Amino acid sequence: MKTRTFGRTGLGVTELGYGAMELRRMDEAEAGGLLNAVLNSGINFIDTAPDYGLSEELIGKTIPHRRDEYILASKCGCNIPRDADDDVGHIWTQEKVFHNVDLSLKRMKTDHLDLLQVHSGSAAEIVQGEVVEALKKVQEQGKVRFIGYTATGQRRFGIEDMPEMLAWDAFDFYQLPYCVVARTHENTITDLKCRDLGTILRGTVKPWYCRVYDDKGEWEVLWEQANLDDLMSENEDRYRFMLRFAISHPNYSTVIIGTKNPDHLRANVQTVTDGPLPDDVYTEAKRRLDAFGMTAG
């Protein structure tokens, strides 16, 4: 599988990465089989978080002997373990950063994380909690190689906070939602490339993760208004078209997709291997989307 340079980190990441949140719904044997299939397929990028259930533990139980084959990304700010079921899910403090990193290293049986991301949080919360300072400390300790930010729905996908964060010039990369019918960060991806920063795309085949829809079916109405089905090639479905649209963006670094189904994994690998949409199809899809107000952000 082809690799791309991950911004100023210099790391070579495969165009398709694996989002490990789905591991929380698998037992050890299933997770081991899937994770080994991920690596055997040529994927070298795995993204997880402390609050993805047993995801980190399963990585540590099943593929620590292959640690030199994959770039490992996790997150911080996760309130794990919680004191109570109704406790807040995230806390952005130095103490939580240190706790998350040490817990992740222990769970995944490794001495370092290649990438550590602030799991959402506003710019103000990050400043107040001195989170960037904490990230720098774990870097100095050799526990983390590069640091970044992942934008989630709670913060309107980072739109309000990213200008300030970019001004800090502290983060080496960003994880952003991006989909054909949720193009909020389309221009942001190009901006990050110009700044020599890495970009992880997620939600490319799950549009309801990328945009505040009234319900999960709303994106289908928008899809049909733009008549995107008419642009699909023979035997191509919407899922495959969504993924091909995302990898048609020239400036992304890697796209992560989570699955617990080996057949889905193989299909994702094949789609990315087949490559992006033809230039004329990509251009026409964006023209139709623009016409119905689904513009790039």
Structure notes:
The protein is α/β, with parallel strands linked by helices and 297 residues long. The chain is built from eleven helices and ten strands. The protein has helices at 28-40, 55-62, 94-108, 123-128, 131-140, 162-168, 186-194, 218-225, 238-248, 262-274, 279-291; strands spanning 3-5, 12-14, 16-19, 45-47, 71-76, 113-119, 144-150, 173-177, 198-202, 254-257. The strands form two sheets. It has an eight-stranded parallel β-barrel with strand order 3-4-5-6-7-8-9-10, surrounded by four helices. The chain has a two-stranded antiparallel ribbon with strand order 1-2. The radius of gyration is 19 Å and the shape is globular. The mean pLDDT is 93.
Q: What is the terminal-to-terminal distance?
A: 29 Å
CATH class: Alpha Beta
**Overall strand count:** 10
What percentage of the residues does DSSP assign to strands (E)?
Answer: 15-25%
The shape is globular
- The CATH homology group name: NADP-dependent oxidoreductase domain
Order of helices and strands: EEEHEHEHEHHEHEHEHHEHH
Which CATH architecture would you pick?
Answer: Alpha-Beta Barrel
Question: SS-based structural class?
Answer: alpha/beta
